[in-house]
Prior knowledge:
two-stranded antiparallel sheet
Amino acid sequence: MSPHSRLGVEHSTALSYPSFVGTTKPNHRGSAGAASHGLDEDARDRADQPAMSTDAEEGLAYESALRLRVARRAAEDPALEEARRLLAEGDAEAAHALIERKLEEEPWDDEAGLLADECCAAIEQEAIDIIGPLTTIPRVAVSGDELMRLGLDALSGFLLSLIDGQTDVDTLLDLCGPRRLAALRALRDLVVRGVVRPTGAR
């Protein structure tokens, strides 16, 4: 109860009509004070409750809304619909290529960006299934003369120059900087072609 409410109650109970009237003035101010007291109690109860952080809730709500928008847009946007279909059928590479072309035209498209992230995660998992865990130590499995005849691209050649039989896959990818996903794909292709052989993990 606030000091003003207590003062109102005390004064209202002290004031009355003169004794010769024979009756007491109705305590309307006392009733108002009681109501004010109840409001003060409610305010204190609300203040005692711990404040809930809405950051996590807002983040989940945004992600859920974004995924819903992706699903809706997939039915309206042929490129998103086709990419979603390809990803569902297990062709993450084709889906990613399609989404990358769309993002070149509309770089701020959140729905396309979210779908691109899903494609990247699927591609990475597929590569790891072939190469092995990121702690795997790859080794070159062919001679230098054979490498010369393979006509490898620059990224594959750079990866081969880093493979020393001691460096694990994760470190190799880190050394490739922002081209991590492209490097993982290149390493996967080298393993598939038999140029590189995974030989265990650290």
